[in-house]
Specification:
single chain; 301 residues; alpha+beta; 4-stranded antiparallel β-sheet; 3-stranded antiparallel β-sheet; 9 strands; rod-shaped
């Protein structure tokens, strides 16, 4: 009976040991599973932190590129300097972010807040840039309008100048004296017309200053040049010169007349004291700095 009791006790002890071992195995298995599950969760959490950090880096990079683009879109030096300063701040924070561990959530959150602040600053600059661009566009439009107005005014002024010059030229032409009915008559000592050169002692030059109510009236100095066939000028003195077209030229004879705007007959005399050859001669008549008449005449032997 005692042996049976002892056997039962041994069996009970063994059963309890088996149960204890099973419970221990279950506890160990549960602990291992729990540890594995926690590790998996931690790995997923760290991976999430890494992804969040990479996304934040991308946002910093994007903001830096935006600053770079806006720097090239404005011509205001002061605003460019401010954009450069803010871009440098973005770059410093980006470099810091790259060195921060993904699990350092406190600092990453701080950098995220810094990014939000920088974005607000960027929006302020964008408003300024848009305003400046609108002003620049308006200035361009105003400048183009001003250029067109200036060009129109310049064209009008040039046209008016041309018209004025033409009018002045017409007035000048209209006011210039005109010598008409020019004749040159060779005569002898008795005033009779002769044809042979050897008999000629004087040239009588006759012409009429035509009526011109637009010409200035008063005393007029009339100059006459007699040109020989060889283009030499008949002269009494090498010092007999008058101004014409910016230079001094010789004259054969001159005479002062009183002109009142009406027709005026003028007669001038040239005493022949030089050798004359046959050929075509020419008389040019000048007044007020203008050539007012010309006449060719021929001399025979």
């Amino acid at each position: 009976m005692d042996a049976e009791k002892r056997e039962n006790k041994e069996i009970n002890k063994l059963s309890l040991l088996i149960v204890a071992m099973i419970v221990l195995v279950l506890i160990i298995a549960g602990g291992g599973y729990y540890i594995f599950h926690q590790k998996k969760q931690m790995e997923d959490l760290v991976q999430g932190f890494e992804l969040d950090k990479e996304a934040l880096e991308d946002e910093f990079n994007e903001l830096s590129l935006q600053y770079e683009e806006y720097k090239f879109s404005v011509s205001n030096d002061s605003l460019v300097a401010l954009l450069t300063t803010e871009q440098e701040k973005v770059q410093r924070l980006l470099e810091e972010l790259r060195t921060v561990k993904a699990t350092n959530s406190r600092r990453i959150n701080e950098l995220n807040k810094e990014l939000a602040t920088l974005r607000r600053i960027m929006r302020g600059y964008v408003i300024q840039i848009d305003s400046l661009n609108r002003e620049n566009e308006q200035l361009k439009v105003e400048k183009q309008q001003a250029v067109r107005q200036y060009q129109q005014a310049a064209s009008t002024a040039a046209q008016l100048t041309k018209e004025k010059e033409k009018l002045t030229e017409r007035v000048t032409m209209a006011s210039r004296l005109d010598a008409t009915a020019i004749s040159v008559t060779p005569v002898n000592g008795r005033g009779k017309t002769v044809k042979k050169i050897k008999q000629m002692e004087q040239f009588v030059v006759n012409f009429t200053l035509a009526k011109n109510i637009t010409a200035p009236v008063g005393k007029k100095m009339i100059y006459v040049r007699i040109m020989k066939p060889d283009d030499d000028i008949l002269l009494k003195s090498r010092g007999d010169m008058f101004p014409f077209e910016g230079k001094e030229i010789h004259y054969s004879m001159k005479r002062m007349v009183e002109y009142d705007g009406e027709e005026l007959l003028v007669t001038m005399y040239w005493n022949i004291e030089e050798f004359l050859s046959p050929g075509t001669y020419r008389v040019d008549i000048f007044a007020d700095g203008n050539l007012i008449g010309r006449k060719n005449f021929a001399l025979d032997k």
